[in-house]
Design goal:
Chain lengths: 276, 412
């Protein structure tokens, strides 16, 4: 069983929802980013998404755009992000890691080589935002051959006719985009969150995580209550950004501030008791 | 001899929206259902005679088509005077700068706005570089009483003030985009992001033959009116097809429109002229086909200016309309097949051509076709005098006089 399946199965057994965190790799610099990554499992992250920085992130709002540019300025590359995962794996063999990003850096690295290297580095799943199921043959054979889950986004615009096709192309977990929009620009309402499971559950047994628009511990808890997990990204990137000095450099308390927020989110998410 | 099948260059795209390996639909899931809806609506519109008749009516009575095919006599003589004896091709201009709004952009905009109305969309968004596509879209939206938002890089807002004011006069909202280098690429990112958040009521009117399928094919089809007219007008004027076609390439919509109807005429050579900025040997140019390599951006696989890690590079050109690090996917395909020759002209060459054309023909070209003309100045003298070149004069230069004055050190 993959790390992702194992983790969700264990959470289900404990009657808990998952906290999935997102931060850009190398934001604001490799050392700080690595320190945060190392601290995430201890702070309560159940699944870790690492953003692979790209110059033109089409589905991201201003916060994650800026995070990506800070990361690129500090030298982020796909190879560098894979190296971070390898370092992380030396200490943590259990926490699933998902790389999230856009296709062009992967294409440039070489899809075959990337999937081989990602699996060897300890990556468990991929979210490639701009490769929809229609273009899945670009990456699916290589990802499958290397045991990497391909996690797909399902949006409010994904209609009933299309849903089975999207879900059939998904493994690991389903990422439900709770708002019609880009990351971090609008807060999801309870009604937005509540729409996810009734729409998706008839079509899939995979765990369902809700993201895009979840900022607070209350929202995260609500998402975890309604679905199998909550994804928080922009709120963490905002906290990181607010902790930097005028030149955009990390300050001594940057790592602590981000991890404190993860702890608060985790406490709320894990406080929700679910039927095992 | 193994010859390509008839029509082989005119069969794209395939069902996946691909021209060979190029094109496709590389968008986030939120947009995917809408892209499919646009495709369906466009396929229906193609066969809808009422739709086509309405578009043609607008082209005739609102845009002023057909645009003339002009024999540039003085320019031809000027080039022959410097050419070897018996050399110096006849140069014609396809005068799309005479269209309402001053460029070819309006051809495809009117088609897309009619489509948006057919789809029941009530808001229009667009990206723009030089502002020509933004002006065309704002114009069509005024005509059809649709709210219009144009995304424009803040850098371009600065250097294209007259067009910004025009768009506002036409009732459009102009949103300056400050991310990245604040030029056309960033305007397109922002338009796509806005569209993701407003898919239910909004149509994205793309200005060039790029973006996810069906945009490259759709914009090409609408712009093909340029090549269809040229073919007819050339038969009337000379009784034969031209020997060479020349057009500037940013995203490549005016070039695709001129080239497409001639792609299967083997005797017709084609030259797409990219912007070489300060030179293709420098880092400041916009020559994606000459210096880039295939990648995925803005919904399609195509040639892109990118670094070794797949990060997109900033393009540079004196022409805001060519200042884009990608190119339409069909051009990438035609480039690899060798059907079209992709060449380039620098900022300085375009500036020289801009001035020469103004003085010799009484036509102030936009900086975009000034790049095409720069190549004509080089190519025509190398061709025998009985050969014919058609260059697409795809826009007029009124919008560029401030930029040109600045480069020439003139204070207005």
């Amino acid at each position: 069983m993959s790390r992702i399946s194992t983790r969700f199965a264990a959470l289900k057994e404990q009657g808990r929802g998952a906290l999935v965190t997102f931060l850009e790799g190398y934001d604001p610099d490799p050392a700080t980013s690595m320190a945060i990554l190392r601290g995430l499992p201890g702070a309560g992250a159940d699944v870790i998404e690492i953003g692979v920085p790209f110059t033109d992130p089409m589905a991201d709002g201003p916060s994650i755009q800026k995070g990506g540019l800070r990361a690129l300025k500090s030298g982020a590359t796909l190879a560098g992000v894979l190296a971070m995962v390898r370092d992380f794996r030396k200490e943590d063999a259990a926490t699933p890691i998902v790389l999230m990003g856009y296709y062009n850096p992967v294409l440039s690295y070489g899809v075959d080589r990337f999937c081989t290297d990602a699996a060897a580095s300890g990556v468990d799943g991929l979210i490639i935002v701009d490769v929809p199921p229609e273009e899945a043959d670009e990456v699916e054979p290589q990802a499958k051959a290397n045991g990497l889950d391909l996690i797909r986004l399902v949006a409010p615009t994904t209609d009933e006719a299309r849903l089975p096709r999207v879900l059939a192309a998904t493994s690991g977990f389903v990422y439900y985009v709770s708002i019609t929009g880009i990351t971090g620009t609008r807060s999801a309402s309870t009604a937005d969150l509540a729409a996810a499971v009734p729409r998706l559950r008839p079509h899939t047994d995979l765990p369902i995580c809700i993201g895009f628009g979840i900022r607070t511990p209350e929202q995260a808890a609500e998402a975890a209550r309604l679905a199998d997990g909550a994804v928080v990204g922009t709120a963490l990137v905002d906290t990181l950004a607010a902790s930097l000095d005028e030149q955009g450099r990390a300050k001594p308390d940057t790592v602590r501030k981000v991890l404190d927020q993860v702890r608060a989110l985790a406490e709320a998410v894990h406080g929700v008791r679910k039927a095992a | 001899m193994n010859k390509p099948l008839p029509n082989s260059f005119r069969q794209g795209p395939d069902a996946r929206g691909r021209f060979g390996q190029f094109g496709g639909r590389f968008v986030a899931e939120t947009l995917m259902p809408l892209i499919l809806e646009v495709e369906q609506a466009y396929e229906a519109a193609k066969k809808d005679t009422a739709f086509q008749a309405e578009w043609r009516r607008l082209l005739t009575h609102y845009v002023g088509r057909p645009s003339p095919l002009w024999y540039a006599d003085r320019l031809t003589k000027h080039l022959r005077a410097k050419a070897a004896p018996g050399m110096g091709a006849k140069v014609y201009f396809k005068r799309d700068e005479l269209n309402h709004t001053g460029a070819h952009k309006i051809n495809a905009v009117l088609g897309q706005i009619l489509l948006a109305k057919k789809m029941g969309k009530t808001r229009i968004i667009a990206e723009t570089g030089a502002g020509q596509h933004g002006v065309a879209t704002a114009t069509a939206c005024a005509l059809f009483d649709l709210p219009c938002t144009v995304f424009m890089g803040a850098t371009d807002v600065e250097r294209q003030q007259p067009n910004v004011f025009r768009m506002k006069l036409l009732g459009a909202e102009v949103v300056p985009v400050t991310s990245g280098a604040a030029t056309l690429k960033d305007a397109m990112n922002e338009a796509l992001r806005h569209w993701v958040a407003h898919v239910h009521d909004t149509y994205y009117c793309i200005g060039t033959v790029a973006g996810p399928h069906p945009y490259p094919a759709m914009v090409r089809d609408f712009q093909s009116v340029i090549g269809e007219e040229t073919r007819e007008q050339m038969m009337a004027a000379e009784g034969r097809l031209p020997d060479a076609l020349v057009a500037a390439i940013g995203g490549g919509s005016n070039a695709m429109g001129l080239f497409y109807p001639f792609l299967d005429d083997e005797s017709v050579a084609m030259y797409g002229v990219e912007a070489a900025g300060k030179g293709v040997e420098t880092h400041e140019h916009a020559a994606s086909l000459t210096k880039g390599r295939p990648g995925v951006l803005h919904g399609n696989r195509t040639y892109l200016l990118q670094d070794e890690f797949g990060q997109i590079l900033e393009a540079h050109s004196i022409s805001a309309g060519l200042d884009y690090p990608g190119v339409g996917p069909e051009h990438s395909w035609l480039h690899e097949l060798g059907r079209v020759n992709y060449v380039h002209a620098t900022d300085d060459e375009a500036l020289a051509a801009f001035q020469l054309c103004s003085k010799l023909e009484g036509i102030i070209p936009a900086l975009e076709p000034a790049h095409a003309l720069a190549y004509v100045l080089h190519q025509a003298p190398a061709m025998p005098a009985d050969k014919i070149i058609v260059m697409n004069m795809c826009g007029r230069g009124d919008k560029d006089i401030f930029t040109v004055a600045r480069h020439l050190g003139v204070k207005l």
